[in-house]
Amino acid sequence: MSDKKTILQSILDQGMLPLFYWDSPTVSLEIIRTLYRAGIRALEYTNRGPAALENFQFLKKELSGEAPGLYLGIGTVKTAGEAEAFIKAGADFIVSPIVSPEVAVLAEKAGLLWIPGCMTPTEINLAQQHQAALIKIFPANILGPEFVSSIRELFQGQLFIPTGGVELNLENIRSWFKAGVCAVGMGSKLISKEVLKNGQYELLYKQTMLAMELVKTVMNEK
Q1: Are 45 and 56 in contact (CB under 8 A)?
Q2: Annotated catalytic, 136?
């Protein structure tokens, strides 16, 4: 288990955090292999289906030897029970759509990076009280870059990552970084249902390379 500073730095260096869930464990594995081949070293598998825990255990086992330096986190963790199960399964970090103090305590105890989802200044404040080094702005498509611009002075030094509806184009990614985020979460705009259903791994590879290029371009502008 790597320490949380190393994993946080990996996300910051990457400037993006891919995330997805799919029922098929073998398709999930191919998706992660493709992302890894494109240079991704931190990604989030979401707890969004009945097979999530079983798939996660399978993925950790399969990837342990073949993907050195890969940090596989679990997302959509809302309860202490879910957190415990995925910590046991070897999650490298935990992402939540909400601020759950119980999950924060378990992550801290396990020495894991915890990334809670926030929509209001009150929630951000609560997340900070529970030592959230990185806070997810969610749902990003509703809040928009203006939200981050408006609140960042209130929370100086806090790291933010928007998730939900971040577009795969230069203008959108640039608007988020200009607003003050340190990375962007890339879900269905990167790993689409079509890619998952039809096993379009080469398309995913190209889109991931493009996403990383766009992010690097914008990060270098800062």
Answers
A1: yes
A2: yes
